[in-house]
Amino acid sequence: MSLTIKFWGVRGSLPSAPPPTDWTYHVEGVLRNFFSAGYRDPSQISRYIQSLEVPQVGGYGAATTCVEIQSPKGQLILDGGSGIRNLSERIMTGTTGRGKGPFHIFMTHFHWDHVIGLPFFTPNFIPGCEVHYYAVQPELEKLIRGIFQRPYFPVPFEALKAKIHFHVMEPRKPYQLEDMTITPYKLDHPDPCWGLKVECGGKAYAHCVDTEGTRITREELGEDLPLYQNVNLMYFDAQYTLPELAEKANWGHSAAQVGLDIAIREGIQKVLFAHHDPGARIEHVQELKRQTKEYFESRQRFASANQNSLPPVEWDFAHEGLEIVL
């Protein structure tokens, strides 16, 4: 094992879950399918549930972006969306084995959906804890301090008990964090946003949200191309369908087909699509998944018709709580 990646929040823009009426409709459908799948006895319910993919039963999650990466010697947290609260609760139960840290949090950018959970990251308040914040943006310290102030939050930054450190990173310069090498690369977003490549033990993870993917070719990507090269797992922004992407130009989010094209060209082994729209219900994301499958298969047919073959690419749409081991 080199890297374990866990997704604590995969929603974009703001925390969002289906309303009770939608859940009632969804549960009704799951129960109806129990019988159409050939099951009859209540003792078979567990077997039926286990035969389904997690999102088919529980959806994709409500929390905004937060990803945890664990290596044999270290831990790195990417973004402080609302998903960081559940990570914080796990940390406080003592099940991480990390004690009082140090905790390392890389911020891609500072839109609300990526910082909303930081005031609920409990280690910030614990004496003796050590929390390190990283970002390319030179205003890093000012922006983090600004979250912990009235009227946005009742506890001022000066009252936090942890030892908090700020590290402004240089673009495209690799940094060593325990046994991980981390390198920030620029994404395509209206406000400056930096993706991160995390490498350890011959494995590599590329964090690519929020990005619109307006730079597609190797020439256009230029010095940011290494973010997508020699990668085992890429986490890519897929908030929109292709028609929506055209309608919402310069909003800073992409479509799965864009990420799939990059993955095919660069030989990326696995892609997870995320940053699900706050208005996207389970059926909506499933429809995005269907469209992506249709597109992938069309590319396979085109390659076959020209006596070529596509490199193998695994892909799926991420859900909250998903864990991948590289």
TrEMBL record:
InterPro entries according to UniProt: Metallo-B-lactamas, RibonucZ/Hydroxyglut_hydro
Domain Metallo-beta-lactamase: 63-253
Species per Swiss-Prot/TrEMBL record: Bdellovibrio bacteriovorus (strain ATCC 15356 / DSM 50701 / NCIMB 9529 / HD100)
Name of protein: Metallo-beta-lactamase superfamily protein
Pfam families: Lactamase_B_2
